[in-house]
Amino acid sequence: MRVSAVLAATFTLCACASIADPRIAALEKRVQQLQDEQAIREVIVRYGEYLDARDYASYASLFASDGVWSGGFGSASGPAAIQAMLEKNLGKAEPGFVNKSNFHLMTTAVVEVDGDIARARSRYTFFTASADNHPTVTLAGRYVDEFVRENGAWKIKKRTTYGVIPYRDGNDPSRAAAPTSLKDVTKR
């Protein structure tokens, strides 16, 4: 009993000391910042993974309840509308779908966190299989994102995609029409 009382007192004193020590508080803040940045980078990577797997429900779950996707297919707001947009434009995946024809490579994510909001810039390269089954770069572009912490998880508040090759301005309403299917993407 006496040992547990001494341990409890020691832990209490350590906890009080760490709260009072500004170096500990600064370190805790930096660790939280790094954890937030890592979580956001993971969302960016999962975005490509889910899209390539045609797992549109998981893909849409990366967006905040009022999250907005804007790009070559137009715009959609909220996970349900984003999922519906993808299914309409890319088609639903058949049961057991395994993507053997294309994939996204997400790179150069720069993340800036400010409390429960964040901004990120990243790049993507879209590869498709060539006629002789070699990876071929088909599209390249960048994303500009706003994130929000929603129910303890980082979610995309707004994503705008900008096609760099071929060039497409995500904010230009007169931009070229989006491909109607993945087959059309591979023809570009």
Task: Outline the structure in words.
It is a single chain. The protein is α+β, with helices and mostly antiparallel strands and 188 residues long. It has one domain: Nuclear Transport Factor 2, Chain: A, CATH 3.10.450.50. Helices cover 39% and strands 37% of the residues. The chain contains five helices and seven strands. The protein has helices at residues 2-20, 22-52, 56-61, 79-90, 182-187, and strands at 63-71, 74-77, 102-114, 117-129, 135-150, 153-165, 167-168. Strands 1, 2, 3, 4, 5, 6 and 7 form a seven-stranded mixed sheet that branches. Strand 4 and strand 5 form a beta hairpin. The chain is elongated and about 70 Å long. It starts with a helix and ends with a helix. Residues 176-188 have low confidence and may be disordered.
List keywords for this structure.
Nuclear Transport Factor 2, Chain: A; disordered C terminus; 37% strand; alpha+beta; 7 strands; 188 residues; 7-stranded mixed β-sheet
SSE layout:
Elements: H1 2-20, H2 22-52, H3 56-61, E1 63-71, E2 74-77, H4 79-90, E3 102-114, E4 117-129, E5 135-150, E6 153-165, E7 167-168, H5 182-187
Proportion of strand residues: 35-45%
Major sheet characteristics: 7 strands, mixed
Bulk shape: elongated
Average pLDDT value? 85
Low-confidence stretches: 176-188
Architecture per CATH nomenclature, i.e. the level-2 architecture: Roll
Tell me the count of domains.
Answer: 1
CATH hierarchy, class: Alpha Beta
Brief rundown of the structure:
The protein has 188 residues and is α+β, with helices and mostly antiparallel strands. The protein has 5 helices and 7 strands; from the N terminus they run H-H-H-E-E-H-E-E-E-E-E-H. The protein has a single domain, classed as Nuclear Transport Factor 2, Chain: A (Roll), CATH 3.10.450.50.
